[in-house]
Amino acid sequence: MKAREILARKGHRVVTIRPGASIETAVHRLALERIGALVVSEDEERIEGIVSERDVIRALAEEGAAVLGPGRRVAEIMTRAVRTCSPEDSVKALMDTMTRHRVRHLPVVEGGKLIGIVSIGDVVKNRLEEMELETNVLRDVVLAGH
């Protein structure tokens, strides 16, 4: 299975935030949407960064509650070097990238434009479904042989 197929199932919606938005707004959006990361983008197509729960926690650990104060912007704490994937990347490749680079979200980019996002939860769900299918096929083969 490929990233394209995961997006076909879950949808292409990506929750984005502008780099000039407040960190407090980002925290509220993460909670409201019940997600772990927001893609940072001015135009919802070009990726400028990603802000995750980890980025917020790291900033809170370094600066305390002041990081949520007025005038503090997403651009200050976002991860700028964003790992991405293409719609044609296999689930195995996604798992490898997520594990090797210790990321839980991979924006999906096609033709230089953001078209979706795949999370570690999406990848795990897909892998569990594949394993269940394999188990059922093997069970059917064994039962057919008796």
Question: Any overview of this molecule?
Answer:
- The protein has 6 helices and 5 strands, in the order αβαββαααββα.
- It is an alpha+beta fold and 146 residues long.
- The chain has a 3-stranded mixed sheet with strand order 1-2-3. Strands 4-5 form a two-stranded antiparallel sheet.
- Helix 5 (91-101) packs across helix 6.
- The relative contact order is 0.19.
Please describe the topology of this protein:
Elements: H1 3-10, E1 16-17, H2 23-33, E2 37-40, E3 49-52, H3 53-63, H4 74-77, H5 91-101, E4 105-110, E5 113-119, H6 120-144
Parallel strand pairs: 1-2
Antiparallel strand pairs: 2-3, 4-5
Query: Number of helical runs?
Result: 6
Q: Would you tell me the overall average pLDDT? A: 92
- Poorly predicted runs: none
Outline, from the CA principal axes?
A: elongated
C-alpha end-to-end distance: 32 Å
CATH class: Alpha Beta
CATH topology-level name: CBS-domain
CATH architecture classification: Roll
Main beta sheet strand tally, sense and closure: 3 strands, mixed
Strand order of the main beta sheet, please?
1-2-3
Number-wise, the strands total 5
CATH superfamily: CBS-domain
Radius of gyration: 18 Å
**Fraction in helix:** 40-55%
Broad structural category: alpha+beta
What is the helix/strand order?
Answer: HEHEEHHHEEH
Please tag this protein with its features.
single chain; about 150 residues; alpha+beta; CBS-domain; 3-stranded mixed β-sheet; two-stranded antiparallel sheet; 5 strands; about 50% helix
How is this structure best summarized?
The chain has 146 residues and is α+β, with helices and mostly antiparallel strands.
